[in-house]
Amino acid sequence: MSSAVAKDASTVMLLRDGTSGIEVFLQRRVKGMAFAGGVTVFPGGGVDPADGTADIAWAGPSPAWWAERFATTEPTAQALVAAAVRETFEECGVLLAGPTADTVVSDSSVYRQARGQLERRELSLAQFLAKEGLVLRADLLRPWSNWITPLAEPRRYDTRFFVAVLPEGQRADGETSEAAQVLWRTPADAINSWTSGVDILMPPTWSQLDSLAAFADTAAVLASEREIAPIMPTYRPGDAGRPLSDFPDNERYFAMLPGGGILGPR
Q1: Long-range contacts of 50-54 (CB under 8 A, 24+ apart)
Q2: Domains recognised in the chain with CATH numbers
Q3: Which part of the chain is the Nudix hydrolase domain (predicted)?
Q4: CA distance 177 to 29
Q5: How far is CA 33 from CA 37, 180, 261, in A?
Q6: CA torsion angle for 169, 191, 177, 167 (degrees, to 10)?
Q7: ∠11-133-123 over CA atoms, to 5°?
Q8: What are φ and ψ of residue 182, in 5° steps?
Q9: 236 or 1: which leads in pLDDT
């Protein structure tokens, strides 16, 4: 039986500096969703065909630069960055765009109607930016990692993870049909909530939180240079309690996993 093709997807770890260090925006997905229902994740989703349009007003590293970082083609790289900006706006109301190449909107709530149109696919990101005279700020994003769903899964994604800092004046919210709860947490607190059985963290989310916990502030995150190699865990159904391997620190993940090391819904 052939494996499902992995769909390109973008996920954004939205950060801010808090009193106890870096905080990251997380959302607990609505239970019953086809993919990762009830799981705590970062904002993100699949690339839409319209994300790859060539006429997006763009500021920052070129698609060629992103293509090199994520080991892909320029059109795919452009679509991934556009999807990262679109999904962040759709899912938490944060807009990484501005009137000029060196500014960013301070109040994204004025685009509430367009946000709904984007989510319903009545409007493309390129159309929205052109209509409002906005420039996509690719320089506000940084590439972080690349995870691919195991071959055995029926629904697969080739997900590129980005980091971005919450623009001054903007607010991340929970006004999306996909999230049952949203909150800001330090990476350590998010992992502690998982180990106590309150939240469910799949390996990619846990891994990103674990990596962010090493940084003192958002400036250090943005200044870091990441070597990005694709990570595709291997699924072994016969391995009781530890069915996934071939991802960084997989033994530590399962050792910390609540419920006796069993991976699955709780």
Answers
A1: 50/121, 50/124, 50/125, 50/126, 51/78, 51/79, 51/80, 51/82, 51/83, 51/86, 51/124, 51/125, 52/76, 52/78, 52/79, 52/82, 53/82, 53/124, 53/125, 53/126, 54/78
A2: 7-256 (3.90.79.10)
A3: 5-208
A4: 9
A5: 5, 11, 24
A6: 10
A7: 55
A8: -130, 150
A9: 236
Angle at which helix 125-132 crosses helix 74-92, to 10 degrees, equals: 70
Tokens 């000029």 belong to residue: 100
What is the pTM for the complete model shown? Answer: 0.92
- What's the maximum distance between 2 C-alpha atoms anywhere in the chain? 55
Q: Which of 224, 235, 120, 106 is nearest to 169 (CA)?
A: 106
DSSP states of 194-260 as a string?
HHTTSS---HHHHHHHHHHTT-SSHHHHHH-------B--EE-TTSTT--EESSTTHHHHHHH-TTT
pLDDT confidence of residue 261: 43
Distances (CA, A) of 73 to 76, 79, 225: 5, 10, 21
Kindly report, residue by residue over 153-189, the tens digit of the pLDDT. Answer: 889 999 999 999 999 999 999 776 666 678 999 999 9
